[in-house]
Specification:
This protein is of the alpha/beta class and 263 residues long. The protein contains eleven helices and five strands; from the N terminus they run αβαβαβαβαβαααααα. It has a five-stranded parallel β-sheet with strand order 2-1-3-4-5, sandwiched between helices.
Length: 263
């Protein structure tokens, strides 16, 4: 189990319950999900993070955390490792397996601080690892760091979202013509290259996004078609860039057509 709250919380002060909340920032606050089975720690950390401008939802353990994550779609999950019912590793595994939440940054906040434990956390897919007791300012800095890292990744995908759709459609038409795709009918023109040199593990949602990108749709249109947010579409496109080793939508479409990954 986790350490005593007084030791874990460090210099965090318990909220009085009467203090007025700070004025909300002009921009949409980063949404955090804090999962820990220690009530005192949850309360203190939540208050500190909210004072720093974050929007914080809490959960008592991994089971509640999983339910909250599905409902809230947080930007970052901060979770203890050793908890009843579902521990941090179990929660992380569920998050990574979910199409909507798989790319959510996860920070392990735990009393286990040995090197082997940190390595196990990173190997499991955690984005950061903070052993208790911790300095709350360090926690805030690490949260902001993973948020900036995620924003850079999304920005890379979004760089092409504002491209002229007409120009993009013409490029795709030219690529299909050069490759003899013929619109995916399977007749006329030369056949596409068989999938012999790549083995890619796309989720169903990634495959859907790839197909719509190949049809010339921009992120906003894809979001409407799949009934999801533009932010989620940006995440899927980022993952497609990484999985295919491409750096632009044009390269991604060419790669997909060359290897018969889209119609």
């Amino acid at each position: 189990m986790s350490q005593e709250p007084s030791a874990a919380a460090g210099p965090i002060s318990e909220p009085s319950g009467t203090e007025e909340p700070l004025e909300a920032p002009a921009s949409t606050p980063v949404r955090l999900l804090l999962v820990d089975d220690e009530p005192g720690l949850r309360t203190a950390v939540k208050a500190y993070l909210e004072d720093e401008g974050f929007a914080v939802t809490t959960a008592n353990d991994g089971e509640e955390g999983w339910t909250a994550a599905q409902a809230q779609m947080p930007d970052v999950v901060i979770t203890d490792v050793m908890m009843p019912r579902c521990d941090g590793y179990g929660l992380l595994k569920r998050l990574r397996a979910d199409e909507r939440l798989g790319g959510t940054p996860v920070i392990f906040l735990t009393a286990k601080g040995m090197t082997a434990d940190r390595i196990a956390g990173f190997q499991a897919g955690a984005d950061d690892y903070i052993p208790k007791p911790f300095d709350p300012d360090e926690l805030v800095a690490r949260v902001r760091n993973v948020v900036r890292r995620q924003e850079r990744l999304l920005a890379e995908a979004a760089r092409f979202a504002d491209a002229d759709i007409g120009a993009m459609a013409r490029q795709i038409t030219e690529i299909r013509s050069m490759l003899g795709g013929g619109g995916g009918s399977g007749s006329g023109g030369s056949a596409r290259k068989p999938v012999t040199d790549v083995k890619l593990d796309f989720t169903p949602r990634e495959a859907s996004v790839l197909q719509l990108v190949a049809e010339g749709m921009m992120n906003k249109e894809i979001a409407r078609r799949l009934e999801t947010s533009i932010r989620n579409v940006e995440k899927y496109v980022s993952r497609l860039f990484i999985k295919t080793g491409t750096a632009s939508r044009t390269e991604l479409v060419r790669f997909a057509l060359e290897h018969g990954l889209v119609d």
